[in-house]
Design goal:
This protein is mainly alpha-helical. Helix content is about 65%, strand content about 10%. The longest helix is centred in the N-terminal third of the chain and has 21 residues, at about 5-25.
């Protein structure tokens, strides 16, 4: 019959090794956690706008932002989408959309 204390010691050693392996593995961070939050100064530099202009957009709710206590935060991803949403279509893109729309109506 095996010594129960020796068996417990082996199991504890295995658990310790597993914990050490987990501790030394590189951490995998989800994409949501890596989303970069910007302060108003960083957002103004990113958008190439003055801080007062940015405050005006926030006041009129024209730009996506988050507020915690008295501080404003901006998601870099959302700011990029905000800028992309202002893109104007070219004449050829509008023509192609019109042609597609007319073909669907037939």
């Amino acid at each position: 019959m095996n010594n129960p204390f020796a068996e417990i010691e082996v199991r504890l050693s295995n658990i310790e090794n597993l914990i050490l392996d987990l501790k030394h593995q590189p951490k995998q961070v989800s994409t949501e956690q890596t989303e970069q939050l910007l302060t108003i100064q960083q957002a103004s530099q990113f958008l190439n706008l003055s801080v007062p202009t940015l405050y005006g957009y926030v006041h009129r709710s024209e730009i996506p932002y988050m507020k915690k206590s008295k501080r404003l935060y901006f998601s870099k991803k959302e700011l990029f989408e905000f800028v992309k949403a202002g893109r104007k279509k070219t004449v050829s893109e509008i023509t192609a959309e019109a042609d597609t729309y007319l073909k669907e109506k037939k």
